[in-house]
Amino acid sequence: MKRDIVTLSAITALGLALLPTGVVAQQGTLKQQLVGAWTLVSCDNMLGSANAPYCVNPKGILILDASGQYAVMTFAGGRSNSTTEGTNAANFGTWSVNEADKTITRRFVGALSPANEGVAETKNSVSLAGDELKLVGQSSLPSGEVRVNSVYRRVK
Asked: Domains plus CATH for the chain?
């Protein structure tokens, strides 16, 4: 009997170890499920009061690590040498999750836009379905208002 329990436990542990990391992660807290690298699939983001889309033909990555650090880069509509055109966004800092509200808050430590460094914070609603992550929200940043509606896919 005891040998059967030990054998069953060993088989279960081996089975869990062989599962893709995303399957095991989906069983944990929202924060645990968000940890990892995400590639930008699409976005319908707006920057500033002109309500002009800045997320045309987007490319980007969002990295959320287990220690609470993040980095995000978005290139959309082509590259330019100007950081004021709103086509490129990059920042890094700390992140936290409100499990009850299903929101993620990112606090900028460094940013492509110097006005956002050390003072900016974004809060977005999180929707997670398998390997698809949706972030939705609106934030007031020192560099202007931003509305976020982004879809990411987990990097495998």
From this structure: 21-154 (2.40.128.280)
